[in-house]
Amino acid sequence: MTVKSNTGGKTAIVTGASSGIGFAIARRLLGEGWNVVGNARTDARLVEAANRFGAGDRFTGVAGDVADPRTAQALVDQAVARFGTVDALVNNAGIFLPKPFIDFTPEEIEQQIATNVKGTIFASQAASRHMIGRGAGAIVNITASIALQPRSNVPAFMAVLLKGGLNAATRALALELAPHGVRVNAVAPGIIDSEMHSPESHGFLKTLQPTGRLGTVDEIADAVLYLVGAGFTSGVVLPVDGAASAGNFS
User: How far from 109 is each of 45, 54, 95, 103, 159, CA to CA, in Å?
Assistant: First the structure.
């Protein structure tokens, strides 16, 4: 039997919570008094993240592949068992693989579809069923700025296809769930200083941002924190990209 925590407060599920943007989002929510159920592929990564959070029993994890609907349901079940409810879902887990279109292998295509699309769908389905039942909730999808403004010098067909689809799906789901009190938004990050990019690449990557710098994981967490609390905001795709999606620039 699982004993519920006595910490109270709101509860969020964050996928891909053990590193990078997902870790920063979970850390920010914990810092604001939320309970967090995090997901990563392995228990070891979750244990390491929990130690870094230092949040005691306000953080718990569910290991597994988000493309597996059983993992998605386990996240919701764990949240309800430990904390009583799910107030927010942050679909952060994703794969970004920039390379020429003709070079994508079938395996790479399937992997990106599984994590970026199926992972978002299954987690959102499981969370939505719970949120509809209680008449409230917020879903935030982490997409990509490049899907709003593709670039000729950054070949990223799969990211544009999949994250662009999620941007459109965010608006569609916001309309569908609005009568049930559930809000759905997205954050579209630009190039962020995280483990995804080697320090050697930062010089070039900065030239792709009109502001001349990379974004930070905490700036993405700021946007997520705003959207989970913005009660009259739904169907929004919020670029956090230093104006990279505003149009062409030299």
Answer: 25, 37, 10, 10, 10
